[in-house]
Design a protein that fits this description.
By secondary structure, the chain is α+β, with helices and mostly antiparallel strands. Helix content is 24%, strand content 28%. The protein contains 3 helices and 10 strands. A hairpin with a 6-residue loop joins strand 5 and strand 6.
Amino acid sequence: MSLTGVEEDYLTLLDWRRRVATLYAGVRGALVTEPLAAHALWRAGRDELFGKHPQSALPEEARVSFRGLRYFAYDKRYALSAPVRPLPHERFDVPTSTEGVIPFVRFGAVDLEFGSLEVFWLDAYGGGVFIPFRDATSGTTTYGGGRYLLDTAKGADLGSIGDRLVLDFNFSYHPSCVYDPKWICPLAPLSNRLAVAIEAGERIS
């Protein structure tokens, strides 16, 4: 029995998520003692997925000439952690790149030296912690709609140290819609805009 195109898509998506989960497990294992090695592992893993995997955010024709994603140099100043400060639970319809919405529940915030970011839970089956942000690089050297710091529903999870979430901006990355408008991506809300330039993580120029 042969698979249909739709069935094949489901299975390749399953494989993508397994590979991302495995990649982040390796990153978490190295991050505490060898952050530069963890960052190099993350970059190499993402380049492999973007360049060769059928579920890559890159259109198929763009993968032929793909030579790797662009990043700021690793900067230990942006390797942070913080506890989640509880906030009254509030349901939000977070806007997406296609002018739709995705339901999230805001349940807390993380307070950092350069500002606070609200922490969301994906209000759908399975759920997951989601922390998007925009900063002073958004719209210049990074995507105007912001980047993702954590998206545990998709496997992008840097772990915890005790009651503190690991929030290393060197591992922040762009949503898939940056590479192809067919992808539907939630964007950083107004509450998650930082006034400073976070020159760490993925960049576009």
